[in-house]
What does this fold into?
Amino acid sequence: MTIITPDTKPAAVPGSSRVLLAYLKRDKLALAAAIFLAIVVLAAILGPWLVGDVASRLGLRQRNLAPFSLESGWIYVLGADTLGRPILARLIVGAQNTLGIAAAAVFASMLVGGTLGLIAGYSERWYSHLILRLADIVMSFPSLLLALIVLYTLGPSITNLVIVLAVTRMPIYLRTARAEVLELRERMFVSAARAMGATPARIIIRHIAPLVLPTLVTISAIDFATVILSESALSFLGLGIQPPDFTWGAMVANGRGYLATAWWIAFWPGLAIMLTTLSLNILSNWARTVADPQQRWRLQKLRKAAR
Amino acid sequence: MIAYLGRRASHSILSVIGLLTLVFFLTRLTGDPSALYLPLDSTAEARADFARLNGLDQPIYWQFLEYLRDLLQLDFGQSLRQNRSAIEVALEAFPETLKLAVVAITLSTASAILVGSLAAARPGSVFDRIASLVSLAGASAPDFWVAIVGILVFAVGLELLPTSGTGGWAHWIMPTFVLMLRPFGLLVQVVRGTMLSALASPYIKTARAKGLSRQKIIFGHALRNSLLPVVTVAGDLATSLINGAVVVESIFGWPGIGKLMIDSIIQRDFAVVQSTILVTATAIFILNIAIDLLYAVLDPRIRY
It folds into this structure.
């Protein structure tokens, strides 16, 4: 029991992050994915500040400019859209909305879904059954159809988009949290807390929630890519984000009409979505390998071979 | 078994009723259809007549009760746009989606089982790495973008395939491929994962010691036991296949349920929206029960 003292933990953390970095270096694909994601995140944070003006500047001479020509400057390297706006700059600026909406939706669905799951798992009252039935309804129906109806009703806007995406992803967090609570609430420490007179709210918040949270965070990391894809599809169908705001999905929709004359308008933003979701999936696969003791040797063996 | 089916059915019926209620009130919030269906200069009297004719002048709770009463009498309402029974419109579009979905899920499951098993047979090999990357790319690709690039390359560029519509077998290629992409990508990973753990189990060692051929061990012994999770995931994917169908149908002009849904939401054809939801939800419910029954066939230990 004395081995687990608080002061051994801080010492282990820098070491483990160094080990993680070493694992990451052994897996070239995961490393590339991590670097790409870092660039996208940087673009999302700094993009509007760096190239915000360029992205909305109309250029008559650059209308439908073909990619890979540097005549008009490096920012036009991916070509320009029908209004002569450089696509590279718009990609950089669009990263903020694309990642921001997905992050907000994932966070909201984790928070609300997790909370409802904790309640439904801990209590046997009528509202627990109601919560589960509601989750069933959302789960049993194709999310895109539901989102289309709701967005058409409420009107497309960023807030509504986040709400819809969050609601359609919520059942996953809800069910996972509930399943974990069902197991945890039979444990000794919960009985002990109950015997000492702790209220249900206190037991859930102080004793159960901290143990459920890591699982939910893991799911949210994997879910992030799915949410980006859903948002792009909705924006592509015209019920997502509305002009003048745009995401990568909306950019693909804009370029759809000019496929025969200017393929690059629709191509690059789609590629950006694909590379981002692919990187997220590669990284989460890598994380699963590292976290799994039966699989970790694949990365460790590589390290020995390299030496 | 019967008791199980009954319990399952009652849960599903509750879900469907909940869904229909939700959609009923949501669609009523989108606005007045008379603004869309009558000429701009029509008199207030004509509008009132239109509303009365379609029961839109009643309070919304009364409209809902009438809707429920009609539902019990298997009357699903009239389509405003096509002026015929709404359920007829929905049932006409449904087979088109079903055909596409069945072909896509069958092809993607079959190819994923083959690729995933071969990848798991030699973990770490070149084939395994390529299969992993391709499956990840398939699972990550935005379907609408793949469809557009497909049109760009094969229809606009090479002029090999038609851009949209239905007709001969050539019209099937692109929609099916785009629809297959995501299920294929996810299923390859599931098959590979379960096959890896199955191939590490003792009965495989026994089979090897008996001197069985590689094919028999992989496809006869290991695959048989790793099919269950694959069926689960394939079943889940079949529901989300409808999501893909919405996108694919609207891009390729496929006259299925997804396209009908988008069109009727935009044109405020309430009865058709509700009928498509009813048809889709029923189909998903039947599918889920079929998957549960398939479990029992695949794994004799499972009894209901």
About this structure: Chain B touches chain A through 49 residues (CB under 8 Å).
